[in-house]
Amino acid sequence: MSKRRGGRARRAALPLLWLAAALLSAGCGQRGTPPPVDVFLARHWAEPLPPQGPPPAGFSTLEASLSPQACGQCHAPQYEAWRTSLHSRTVGPGLLWQLALMDQAQANGCFRCHAPLAEQKALLAIEHGWQGAPPLPPPGYVDPQLGHQGLVCAACHVREHRRFGPPAGPGADSGVAHGGFTASPAFQDSRFCAHCHQFPPNGPSVAGKLFEDTWNQWAASPMAPGRSCQSCHMPDRQHLWRGIHDPDTTRSALDLGVQVAALGGGRYEARARVRNVGAGHHFPTYMVPKIELDFVRRDADGATQALGRHVIGWSVDTQLTREIADTRISAGASRDFTVPFAAPRSGGWKVELVVRVKPGEHYERMYREYLARAAELPPQAVSQLRRALAEVLAAEYELMRVAATPPIAN
Ligand code: HEC
Ligand code: HEC
Ligand code: HEC
Ligand code: HEC
Ligand code: HEC
Known about the structure:
This protein is of the alpha+beta class.
């Protein structure tokens, strides 16, 4: 479905222009007090981001383009890595079905993190027939696909067509493409990521906890300040941003041991001790993922018996009004999960712990509730909602199995 109104319905006041004169450099007027990284980031992540404006006269078509494919012509390793990352999928079915139920102001609130460039918001406004959509066609440096390409290179690196990046690494050539670049240590600072991974103190919360609190969790952890977000999520400057969706990254967060203790009278207790040794914030940081710990008794004859389940995560109801449980493990801390059970006299049994990860558990619950009321939703939203649910389910995986034998007395 396209609610396109030809894109030509211009209003008197146009919030979205292709060529608005951006005056980012005005920020230079602020002197002294805040340290440079703060000043840089306040300008770099101004809300909303102003349009890039016309490209400098000397730029080739390739240099002027905001499209990630264009950057990839000269920065192949970054492009190849970014393509496989979730940052390239921030405008997916999970966002799109919700847009169909929103007005433009609400949607722009989401785009701040999911499609931050003014040019992306303009394209999405044209697509949805929203107010102030600029006229078609977009200028040559704006690829018509840009609105759906997520957190593109230019969102992090390009302002007024100028490139910004970290101080040059070893092996960088002194090429003169796109008029060079401006280096800032802000790119290696965890505050760079906080713009989207940390809500402000007055942001939405439940039980006094911000929905997004990753930077604060990190700042309070033993990892800070030595290990930045980038050092774990962009090792060697790779643009991968692997997290809970990636089994190896999730495994690197954990130290996990399982033991069986005899309680007497044929009763036992299985205990899993889970330590967060590798995540520089709570494990997991958000309310969305859950880690399920299933305890199973495997008998000598091969029969199995489910003993119980524990869940690691922050469970909140789908209306986001009530905390159900919070069993996240803060950085460096550990948590015990126990299950009492009875065992056969014959012996030869063992306990197995099966660890499963559901990276999108909160959304799974929410999407199912909305699908149950599908008749009340626009058809376009329903098909995207089904796709979103399928993506969430496909992301689940078994992380590991750990076995423990009973104490020798058995
Ligand atoms: C025509 C080739 C070309 C294109 C297209 C291009 N770049 Fe570059 N870029 C270069 C060269 C050459 C350098 C010099 C430093 C180097 O070797 O990395 C550079 C440097 C950079 C740097 C600084 C690297 C550092 O060490 O901090 C960033 C960031 C950057 N480009 C981002 C982009 C982005 C984003 C795009 C697309 C919007 C883009 N570039 C498009 C060739 C290009
Ligand atoms: C979420 C923000 C973000 C996005 C999106 C992003 N980058 Fe980066 N990029 C960074 C950060 C942060 C660094 C510095 C990492 C560090 O130094 O640890 C960086 C570093 C770079 C460098 C310097 C690399 C080096 O080895 O010296 C280049 C070139 C670059 N990015 C190009 C790109 C291109 C091309 C894309 C799109 C395919 C892209 N970036 C997407 C945040 C981003
Ligand atoms: C402050 C930045 C920020 C804002 C604003 C924001 N998000 Fe997100 N969003 C994130 C981050 C970070 C994640 C990844 C972590 C997670 O799953 O919570 C995410 C994940 C998601 C996901 C799951 C991944 C996917 O692409 O399917 C959906 C759906 C989503 N957001 C929808 C929205 C909607 C709808 C809005 C507006 C009402 C919104 N977001 C506003 C930062 C933001
Ligand atoms: C010491 C390494 C380390 C540091 C530092 C670190 N992370 Fe992580 N991060 C991980 C590991 C490991 C995971 C996977 C396990 C998990 O989800 O907690 C992860 C997961 C994530 C996730 C996935 C969502 C979720 O609910 O867990 C996001 C988003 C994230 N990190 C963002 C950040 C940001 C932003 C920072 C800086 C403020 C940061 N990380 C600092 C290691 C680190
Ligand atoms: C402009 C907003 C924005 C910025 C800046 C940003 N992110 Fe993200 N990030 C997102 C959104 C939105 C998602 C959700 C992607 C999805 O699932 O669709 C995300 C996802 C992630 C994930 C995926 C975790 C997982 O497996 O679920 C990691 C890790 C992450 N970001 C780390 C970082 C780090 C490190 C930085 C700083 C270098 C950073 N991000 C900067 C918006 C941002």
